[in-house]
Amino acid sequence: MRAFVVLLAVLVVHAQAIDVAKLRLFAAKNNVSCIYVFGDSSVDPGNNNNLMTDQKVNFLPYGKDFYDGRPTGRFTNGRLATDLIADALGHTRYIPAYLDPNLTNAQLVNGVSFASGGSGYDDLTAQLSNVISLAKQLDYFREYKARLGRLVGKKRAENIVTNGVFLLSMGTNDFLQNYYLEPTRSNQFTIDKYQDYLISAMTKYIKAMHAEGVRRLTVVGMEPFGCVPLIRALKGSVGCDDEYNKVALSFNSKIKSLMATLEPSLGIKNFYTDIYGLVFDVIQNPKKYGFVEASKGCCGSGLDFGQTCKGLTTCVDRSKYVYWDAVHFTEEMYKIISEEALKTLMKTFA
């Protein structure tokens, strides 16, 4: 099995797109036990709620369209891709944050997220925002393994981990909150060399994950971050910023090259999820996908995000907006992305 069901599920997008019964049968046949998530705000379900950082969104209108309309710390109006994956697989309705003080033993068995909004492959990126670095996320995973072993026994815990799907989604903060904003890395590296530095960090951490029992891994590529509403506003650009988008494209190429070496060298079954082309097409042709707004967010003025969104009014129909705030996608956009991921996955199995 190459690409784990994680992206086979990749979300209960539209009902007609996924046969959930067949999906769950496929997952059962391949012993998919649960999902483990590492990354940034694209997959953080609320770990940052428990940190001394301003990179948190545990307030309305964030979570407005979550199950009971409450803010959980997810950087969107409703569900994240990982929540939808878990629901499609039938394990749980959503992936909990590992640092959630209310995390139960039952939830531990179905997988958790260690992701932290503001984090990146470069540990300095997390330090700048006082959030959880990828190194620390791995430390929490080791702690989780010990906790799981005490709960279900060491052998069963090892089987759960081995059959789990590990999803890694980050990278944008390394450029937008680190390289282009802070002088440290830009003084040390050209943009090309910084990308190589990030790839080196990725390699180190993926090898560390392998040493901890990871055998199924999916890495999500970078979006065209030159199209993010906040970036467009800061750059004074009507359209997307070509310079930033070229950086995303070149970095994605390097990620693909790295992923190609992992399976033969480590024995990790891996699947690379390339979202760049889809996201770019949605932004250029929103009506084609059922959207009416792709240049600004749904929250407040459309250029608000995080703390500046707190308590603000939102657009009436969130399903018509690509972006929830000036940086992050709406749940509806995650559904669109998942449809493409599913098509790619099915081609892999063809």
Automatic annotation (TrEMBL):
Q: Do you know which SUPFAM superfamilies this protein is assigned to? A: SGNH hydrolase
The residues the entry assigns to the signal sequence are 1-17
- Kindly list the residue ranges recorded as spanning the membrane: none
| Gene Ontology molecular function: any one | hydrolase activity, acting on ester bonds
Say yes or no: keyword Manganese present.
no
Q: Does the keyword DNA damage apply?
A: no
Keywords of the record, alphabetical order, are: Signal
Q: What does the similarity note say? A: Belongs to the 'GDSL' lipolytic enzyme family.
Name this protein carries in UniProt: SGNH hydrolase-type esterase domain-containing protein
